[in-house]
Structures are given as C-alpha cells and as structure tokens.
Amino acid sequence: MQKDNILVIGACGQLGTELTYELMKVHGVEHVFACDIRTPKDVKHLFDTKMYHTLNVLNQKKLYELIKTLKITQIYHLAAYLSASGEKFPEAAWELNMDGLFNILNAARDLGLRKVYWPSSIAVFGPNTPAIMTPQNCIMDPNTIYGISKLAGERYCEYYHKRYGVDVRSLRYPGLIGWKSAPGGGTTDYAVTIFHEAIKNNKFECFLKQNTELPMLYMPDALRATIDLMEAPAEKIKIRSSYNLAGMSFTPKEIAASIKQHIPKFKMTYSPDYRQAIADSWPNSIDDKVARKDWGWKPKFNLEKMTKDMLENLSS
Ligand code: SER
Questions:
Q1: Both 159 and 266 in a single domain?
Q2: pTM exceeding 0.90
Q3: Ligand 1 binding pocket, CB closer than 6 Å
Q4: Where in the sequence numbering do the catalytic residues fall?
Q5: Structural domain boundaries enclosing 271
Q6: With 46 labelled, which of 8, 198, 257, 294 sits at a CA distance of 20 to 30 A?
Q7: What percent of the chain has pLDDT over 90?
Q8: Handedness of CA 124, 251, 77, 75 (dihedral sign)
Q9: What is the pLDDT of residues 73-88, one digit of tens each?
C-alpha cells in the first residue's frame, strides 16, 4: 500500500512542534512535512529545513501547489489565533481561523486528501453551557471570537463530511500543558508558565482568580488522543463536528498546591486581567464519554502525575 504523506500546518506552535515529531514515529521521517508562516531561518532550531516549508495557509494557490508537489494525502491544520490573542485582533483572528479552515476543507475536497485533522476547543462553550461535566451535545453560546470561529468551524467540518465525503476529524482540546514547547495567546497558558516561573523564581503571578476551575490535558495524552483519533477506522468516528475530550480539571490554587509539594518555597499571587472573563465563560469539567465509547479514549495523567513529570523534565 502507498504510504501517506502528512503535512502539519502551524507546525511551530505549541502542539505542532510536538505532534510533527510524534507523526514521524508513526509514518516515518520522510513522510512528514512541517509548515508554518515563519521562514526556514527562524525555525532551524525546531525542524530540519529539508522537511520544512514556509506557508501562509490563507494563500490558497501556494497551499494547493505544496500539496501537489509533496504528494500530501493527510493534513493536520493547526494554525489559528487562540482565545486571548483573538480578542486583541478579532478581525485577523476570524480571517485566519475561518478562511484557513475553508482552504483546507476545499483542498481536501478538490485534491482528494485522504484525511484532515482540525482542532476545536472547549472555547466552543459559553456562559449558558452546563459548566460541570459539559456533555457532548448541549447549549453552545461562545462569546469570544476564537470560540465563535471554532464552533462555526465544527459545523463546517460536519457539513463537508456529509456533503462532500471529506474525512475530517476533530477534538475539542482543553488547555494543553507541555514542557517541550511554549503556548501563545491562550487563556489556559498560565498552567504552563507557572512551571517555568516556579523553577526559575519560586513565584508566579496568576492572571486568573484562585478558584477558576478549567479543563486541562497533558501533552502526552493530547498527542496520543490526536493520533488515535486519526488512526481509528473511519466507521468508528461517529462525530464529525468535534469530540469532547477530558484529562483533568483544576484551579490555579490547586496547581499551586501541587507544585508546592515539590517546591515548598513556591508562592503564588493573583492579578486577574481580561482573560478572567474568558475563563469564566468556559466549562469547569468535560464529559468525554462519547470519545471513550467510539474510539477508546482514556487519559493517563492527572494533576499529580503531570506536575511531577513537568517539574522533572523542566528541571533537567
Ligand atoms: N488553550 C486555548 C486557549 O486558552 C483553549 O483552547 O485559548
């Protein structure tokens, strides 16, 4: 059987950097290509320039050319503005998040791609969504540009699947936490920065209030979920909008306490900013039983296991 060639778009981001290398383990180094808006010179520290291509996903002509030249059969489309940066640049965020997705879905239809992965987020939920164990199907009234674009994107993914048979698959990620790459522009980013600051300075000023509980997921679980979803037989994928996905839920106070177990001197202070309102509109915890049933999802990391692993890896 002919091997798939994979293109990761937005490969320099928090998820992209790690996912690209995980995909190489599954598909082979020579079958995975990374692209992002940055020049090869700027990403030399991340990728071998032989497998890296500069691409603005809004440039449809260049996207189609790259797919044809590299004989791409699967795309992971990760380029997007996140929740906090989306509120700073609402028009640019809408353009990138929506037109970028349209270019990928149209490419899948026009050029016959085998599979597409596109991430959604807990940001699709809003103030009237049931906040505790948020079900797969419920009221969704997002009030950030990021959340609105992700919800619209989910509807388009399902539409392209039904109407054009595009095999598009998606997960509603909680906040992603990892030590290898830095997040940018999200509301859940505090849960990554806190580890760096705890190790460097024994203190951290949090931009959310101490009791703001949010759903989170450790990167090894996120990578496994993504690849398991994409490698599952198509008939198992019953949801073509996006699957709820859960790992753990905690508040800033709880993660601080967990870090204190390892770094007793650690001190946390609170100075909530505009991101508090975004966090307040999102769920506290997510019910992911549909993902568990359909394709066997199960997280491995809770707060304690993650804290230990993060601190060990960042310290060394
Ligand atoms: N981590 C994202 C954000 O905070 C949520 O999907 O924007």
A1: no
A2: yes
A3: 82-83, 121-123, 146, 173, 175, 186-188
A4: 146
A5: 177-216+248-315
A6: 198
A7: 98
A8: negative
A9: 999 999 999 999 999 9
